[in-house]
Amino acid sequence: MLTLHGFPFSNYHNIVKHALMQKGVSFDEHIVYPNTPAMLAVNPTGKAPAMTTEKGTQLSESSVLVEYLEDAYPEHSLFPQDVEVRGKVRQLMKVSELYLELAARRLLPAVLGNIEFPQATLDEVKSVMERGAHALATLAEFGPFLVGSELTLADIYLRYALAIPKMVGPAKLHWDIMDAVPGLAEWDAMMASTEIAKKIDADQEANAAEFMAYISAPK
Ligand SMILES: N[C@@H](CCC(=O)N[C@@H](CS)C(=O)NCC(=O)O)C(=O)O
């Protein structure tokens, strides 16, 4: 059986977990934390998530993992048939990752560790996220999904990519992505209402204490 390595508190882990559940692919969830020998054994970057495929190949990077799932399990596709529309899905996934998740992640130590950042860094992060918000507002259809009437990988990717922007924007930048993109809050509530999202969110909450113990333990 396919194994997903990572931990339920991780938003990147949850992108892949949601795609697996949505596609109905059976998997083992192997709880392992970043930069540990167990994680490094399956992913040379030491980051979560990673995957061991049914054929034993070890893969990592959340976007690679969800694209692999589409190739290996084409049934219950999370990509549109039309290649042009599929390009739009990939564009939204990339925008979510580069201009929202990764930008906000720079300020995670400010929220989790109470570490002070210079104003120039805060301004830079905000400007990248504003770029992402503008792109999202331009590209997202909310019809009701990001690209038309069917759920795609763009919806799954964005749902979890938003976790850190939602946290650091209001806490550190006096700016909230949920206000900056019309329709985003309604879409987010719709995405949170599904049984799969509820299960993932419950697993995340249940893992919070163990994850906090892992990050506060001396390395
Ligand atoms: N680009 C990676 C990012 C994964 C990532 O940053 N995962 C976090 C957990 S949410 C992690 O492992 N952080 C530990 C580290 O950066 O050393 C992906 O898409 O899978």
Description of the structure:
The protein has 11 helices and 4 strands. The chain folds into 2 domains: 76 residues, Glutaredoxin, CATH 3.40.30.10; 100 residues, Glutathione S-transferase Yfyf (Class Pi), Chain A, domain 2. The chain has a 4-stranded mixed beta sheet, covered by helices on one side. Helix 4 packs parallel to helix 7. 34% of the residues are buried. With 219 residues, the protein is an alpha+beta fold. The protein binds glutathione. Glutathione binds next to helix 1 and helix 3. The site of glutathione has 12 residues, from helix 1 and helix 3.
Strand and helix layout:
Blueprint (H helix, E strand, L loop, with lengths): L1 E5 L4 H13 L3 E5 L5 H4 L9 E3 L5 E3 L1 H11 L10 H23 L2 H5 L6 H21 L13 H9 L1 H11 L3 H4 L3 H9 L2 H22 L3
Parallel strand pairs: 1-2
Antiparallel strand pairs: 1-3, 3-4
Helix pairs in contact: 1-3, 1-7, 4-6, 4-7, 4-8, 6-8
The chain binds glutathione (GSH).
The site of glutathione (GSH) has 12 residues, from helix 1 and helix 3.
Kindly give the count of domains.
2
What is the fold named in CATH at topology level of the largest domain?
Glutathione S-transferase Yfyf (Class Pi), Chain A, domain 2
CATH class of the largest domain: Mainly Alpha
Question: What is the annotated CATH architecture of the largest domain?
Answer: Up-down Bundle
**How many H/I helices?**
11
In short:
The protein has 219 residues and is of the alpha+beta class.
Please give a handful of descriptors for the protein shown:
Glutathione S-transferase Yfyf (Class Pi), Chain A, domain 2, 219 residues, Glutaredoxin, 2 domains, alpha+beta, binds glutathione, single chain, 4 strands, globular
